[in-house]
Amino acid sequence: MASCSTESANETPTDYKVVNNFTYNQEELQIEQKINEYRISKGLTPLEKINHISYLSEGHDEYMITTKIVDHSYFNEREQNLKTTLGAKKVGENIAYGYETISSTFNAWLNSDLHRMNIEGDYTNFGVAVRKDNNGTMYITNIFIKK
User: Fold this and answer.
1) How do the pLDDT tens digits run along the chain, 147 residues long?
2) Domains in the chain and their CATH numbers?
3) DSSP string for 64-89
4) DSSP letters along 6-21, please?
5) Which residues are CB-neighbours of 39 under 8 A, at least 6 positions away?
């Protein structure tokens, strides 16, 4: 489980393309519901999902599964992609793996100051992907942006 966030005005144009289609599984919809219910309970605005962000989250899950490295590798590339394609002003990322349920993952995030800061942050949008390796181990990437 790890958390990462940055806020920067630096942008380098690239040839990123926005991905508009993404199909959500039950676990991803549960995370969306838990995040927005929690934010509402704290008097915060719910976040809107953006498929492109979930697509990038899925790519990071696949990277972690393939390499067996659970960290924020290539976060700067995901951040730059989101700044370029969606006009993000701020980007944060929570990851997790190995939890049995979405509830246990979400509770672990809430019990971590850095993860909770992303969930409670002044973000406007987010995306999420949950993928399982061949052993059924869950990998989760949740990216937040502020437009």
Assistant:
1) 545 544 443 334 456 889 999 999 999 999 999 999 999 999 999 999 999 999 999 999 999 999 998 999 889 999 999 999 999 999 999 999 999 999 999 999 999 999 999 999 999 999 999 999 999 999 999 999 999
2) 26-146 (3.40.33.10)
3) HHHH---S-TTHHHHHHHHHHHH--S
4) EE--------------
5) 45, 46, 47, 119, 120
Report the alpha-carbon distance of residue 66 to residue 61 in Å, rounded: 9
State residue 54 phi and psi, 5-degree precision.
-65, -35
Q: Residues near 112 by Cβ (< 8 Å), separated by ≥ 6?
A: 1, 3
